[in-house]
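Today's session is about reading a structure prediction critically. Students often jump straight to the picture, but the first step is always the sequence itself: look for stretches that repeat, for charged clusters, for runs of hydrophobic residues. Only then move on to the predicted structure, which in these notes is written as discrete structure tokens rather than atom positions. Here is the chain we will use throughout the hour.
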Amino acid sequence: MSNPIKRLWESLAKRKHSPEAAQRAPSEPSSNPSGEAPRRTMCSPQPHVCAITDVGQVRDHNEDLYYVAPDCAWFVVADGMGGHEAGEVAAELAIKAIVEHLTAERIAAAATRSEIGSLLLDAVHAAHDLVWEENRKRQDGKEMGCTLVLGCLSAGLVTCHVGDSRCYVLHEGVLRQITHDHSAVGALVEAGQLTPEEARVHPDKNVVLQAIGTSGGVLPDVNAAELFPGDRILLCSDGLWEELPHAGLEAVAASDGTVRQVATLLVDRANEAGGFDNITAVLCEVLPSRKSDVHSEGEQLLTEQGDS
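Below is the predicted structure for this chain, in token form.
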């Protein structure tokens, strides 16, 4: 890596696994008194959608958060950063802003894929603004934030993300990553200087270049994919995809079973692989009313950053 690029990354990067974040917090009550099973919460409002967040095998607190809209038309995963309590607050504030922005009326009024993309982009900027305002009030000088991926089922699938939380689409057994990581190693992979396999073990694998609520501002990406009935959409934090190689993630996502069973298996496999981070997955199976032919249109839907 050249020195100018390295200095740029050092000035922009926010380390999600800082010493403060890695400290073990006091034990929290568990639904299992034996403490043998990892603590998790699950939401399956309809049979074709399931969301799970799990504390993992190493950490004592969970900075991940998910939200599924009541009609299951959109869902979001936020991965907090900044240490115990701060990360949770950042994720909660970000999702609060998105819930307030993405009303059913606004989604219904967005007739085209580009309009949906603009709506999601505005929601993510609102999330950034809310967390940034909270950061300005903090007295300890420590910045909190979160990575975030938001998906909406309207005119196919439209996503908006910041950081390295990801969205995948499984089509005919092939898992395709729709989003592109805003991370140091993600930039190297895009430039052809690292393979995805090398990126998974790179010493800078946890350095993100953008995060909701941080002083550097955000430039979210908006992407889209058309969908076949039976496709599966996966939104997840890095606690899932970092533990499983792409082939393993694909095999589980394509496995037989209900959406709830497959989502549970994804989280279980990440725990079995080490569970070094919090693990969150939202899995949605596309109903017959959706469209066909998966493809990415990220470049066409990318919208320039507004004022932070």
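Discussion point for the tutorial: The chain has one domain: 3-19+38-301.
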